[in-house]
Amino acid sequence: MRLGLNMGYWGAGEDADNLALAVEADRLGYAVVWAAEAYGSDAVTVLTWIAARTERIDVGSAILQIPGRTPANTAMTAATLDSLSGGRFRLGLGVSGPQVSEGWHGVRFDRPLARTREYVAVVRKALSRERLRYEGEFFTLPLPDGPGKALTLTVHPVRERIPVYLAAIGPKNLELTGEIADGWLAIFYAPEHAAEQLAHVAAGRARHGNTMEGFDVVPTVPVVIGDDVERCADALRAYTALYVGGMGSREQNFYNRLAVRMGYEQAAAEVQERYLARDYTGAAAAVPLEFIDRTTLIGPRERIRDRLAAYAESGVTTLSVAVHGGGREQRLHTVRTLAEVLDESGLASAGTGS
Questions:
Q1: Hey, where are the domains in the chain?
Q2: Residues contacting residue 233 through CB under 8 Å, at least 6 positions apart
Q3: Which among 319, 188, 310 has a CA at the least distance from the CA of 245?
Q4: Closest of 133, 10, 9 to residue 71, by C-alpha
Q5: Which fold has domain 2-226+299-345?
Q6: Which of 67, 216, 224, 231 has a Cα at 20 to 30 A from 146?
Q7: Whole-number Å distance between alpha carbons of 267 and 260
Q8: Global pTM value
């Protein structure tokens, strides 16, 4: 198992500290650093900045929003970042959600799986530097009734194949991820509940005769190190409540549905009810300690070492940590401690270590 670092969103006044974390992760031998985007900072600019200040660590988008760019534009971006970074770019994609897709980008959130399939096909075709011709339900290149010509990408990526990752939560999306992607970007991943999710991914892989060998399973796992487990969990309650309760509408919240599938139906309903009523403190308090414990790394060093083993045994190949709480030195200490603990556990594979 390798280590990654998920920096999340930027622009909250901690950019210098975040860059310091990325530079330290590079020094320690972390495999990849990820940046996200929603409707604030964009991931591409952040990753370019990180790539210019690091030497070995891969830079990955977690995610680039499918409704925010044409697939050809995404291929151009991926090729450019791969070239500038010396072959260190990983392309993570996702459809986002209906609120952002329709409210921010003005793109209907219809048939997201079919749109994703076509989008990835066009991106791969463009990156292969073939003439870009495609006829689909969502994308047709070139347009048949105008002066457009089938063009070829002029930028040469360093690698012959830039790895594509998909952010997926639901069963059908997990199957699609296994079928067309090189890796899965997971959230609220619990080793105790991973078998069913990974079975969907494996089913998608099997459609083309592929196994899970070489497929990258990459959950983002929040981390808070400390002696008091409950106090560590408290530091993550607001974050968890935001996703389970407020990331989406009452009718369509993918994270809430995931919590239900994991067996927390009653708690998920209460968290959502309180959050949508703007009782954010009550929503955070309603998140079960067990749910937080199973989907994060919290507690003292020895406990985190045991949980790292559980993640590895469940099928995780790259564990991307999201460091929560504290100032720069405390967060740097967390990044260093995780590298040390993984080395001590004997679970580290190539690309990870101190």
A1: 2-226+299-345, 237-295
A2: 224, 289, 292, 293, 296, 298
A3: 188
A4: 133
A5: TIM Barrel (3.20.20)
A6: 67
A7: 8
A8: 0.95
